[in-house]
Amino acid sequence: MIGKLSGRIDYRAADHLLIDVRGVGYLVYISDRTMAALPGVGEVVALYTDLVVREDLMQLFGFQTLVEKEWHRLLTSVQGVGAKASLAILGTLGPDGVSRAIALGDWNAVKAAKGIGPKIAQRVVLDLKDKAPGVMAMTGTVADALGEAQAAADETVIEAAAPRPAPKPAAPNASAQSEALSALGNLGYAPGDAAGAVAQAAGETPEADTKALIRAALKLLAPQG
């Protein structure tokens, strides 16, 4: 299994890259959003990868973060969602947008991706709703590792290594979100409902601590009227 590649971009196409890793070229398919965020030809890049093996085909798909890769794995577990459809969803919404859409049950947001119809969008939301909290929690516990992976790429690909750049900081209240989700679960709220409320509360007050997030989420979960 090829889990990560670090090398130089040989060329960029509409939906894939050719990455030269010490003289070996790897063709990696990526989303539009990832393509727009990557450097130009000749520059060093590091991507997490997922290898799809079929009887007549082997394809690599690339992701900037482990969270994006995890969403790809979950999206492709849904019946009717292949690797290209998953990239379309991630390219349209990004991993954070996918988390919010599924946690809030917003299948219309998923349907906005190219080639995704309403039935598939609804199936994605229903099948993955209870899995959203776990992936959302990864935002705080897994380094959104582009900075670290890029630094590793610089060290392995460039002979005269430049100083290691600082890792990209995690979201300011990611740990608080994870703790709030756990607390709401202990109170008996369904994982999907709790994740949606916490995501909305965190979006409205990014600097909120755990207690503040729990209070705000409970207000959102309280019966209206």
From TrEMBL:
Function: The RuvA-RuvB-RuvC complex processes Holliday junction (HJ) DNA during genetic recombination and DNA repair, while the RuvA-RuvB complex plays an important role in the rescue of blocked DNA replication forks via replication fork reversal (RFR). RuvA specifically binds to HJ cruciform DNA, conferring on it an open structure. The RuvB hexamer acts as an ATP-dependent pump, pulling dsDNA into and through the RuvAB complex. HJ branch migration allows RuvC to scan DNA until it finds its consensus sequence, where it cleaves and resolves the cruciform DNA.
Known partners and oligomeric status: Homotetramer. Forms an RuvA(8)-RuvB(12)-Holliday junction (HJ) complex. HJ DNA is sandwiched between 2 RuvA tetramers; dsDNA enters through RuvA and exits via RuvB. An RuvB hexamer assembles on each DNA strand where it exits the tetramer. Each RuvB hexamer is contacted by two RuvA subunits (via domain III) on 2 adjacent RuvB subunits; this complex drives branch migration. In the full resolvosome a probable DNA-RuvA(4)-RuvB(12)-RuvC(2) complex forms which resolves the HJ.
Record protein name field: Holliday junction branch migration complex subunit RuvA
Gene Ontology molecular function: any one: four-way junction helicase activity
Domain DNA helicase Holliday junction RuvA type: residue ranges: 1-62
Domain (Holliday junction DNA helicase RuvA C-terminal) ranges: 176-222
Example GO BP: DNA recombination
Keywords: ATP-binding, Cytoplasm, DNA damage, DNA recombination, DNA repair, DNA-binding, Helicase, Hydrolase, Nucleotide-binding
Keyword Membrane attributed: no
Main location class: cytoplasm
